[in-house]
Amino acid sequence: MIKLYKIRIGEKVYEVEVEDVSEKEGTIETSASSDSKQDVSKNENPPLQKETEGSEVIKAPMQGLIVDVKAKTGQKVKAGDEVVVLEAMKMENPIVAPCDGTISEIRVAKGDTVNTDDILVVLS
Fold first, then answer.
1. DSSP-H helix ranges across the chain
2. Domain locations in the chain as residue ranges
3. Region Disordered: what ranges (predicted)?
């Protein structure tokens, strides 16, 4: 059985159809999933990926603004040491070294805007 409801949020009115289903019946579909079928099983790239043998790259986990670069080229870092501070959605997110190593390259500077998966730092 399908029921139609009107929901008002602020000054905008939404029509919502609600269908009674049990756990054993069919699937639940939203307008977003019916418009574009997305591959949910696809794995996203993690922020840390191998670039070359013996090097680790630290990638931006999200789009944002670089507000501070805490490391310098040639500096030795330990796992968990903060190397970059990324501001996204008005929050400062520390980006840390995933393992011990030496900073071989820093590809961002304070004030840079980065996109998801942009390389920030290369460790060797």
1. 31-35
2. 48-123
3. 20-57
Structure tokens at 68: 């501070």
C-beta atoms surrounding 116 within 10 Å: 14
- Could you count the other beta carbons within 10 Å of the beta carbon of residue 65? 14
> With contact defined as beta carbons under 8 Å apart, do 114 and 59 qualify?
no
More confident residue, 8 or 21: 8
Of 6-15, 50-59, 111-120, the range with the lowest mean pLDDT is 50-59
| Cα-to-chain-centroid distance, residue 108 | 18
pTM of the model: 0.56
Tally the residues of the chain.
124
Instruction: Write the DSSP symbol of residue 90.
Output: T
What pLDDT does 65 receive?
93
Domain 48-123 fold is OB fold (Dihydrolipoamide Acetyltransferase, E2P) (2.40.50)
User: Tokens at residue 55, please?
Assistant: 């090097």
As a whole number, mean pLDDT of residues 45-70 equals 75
Query: For residue 48, with 0-12 CB atoms within 10 Å meaning exposed, 13-18 middle and 19 or more buried, which class applies?
Result: middle
- Paired with 106 in beta bridges are 121
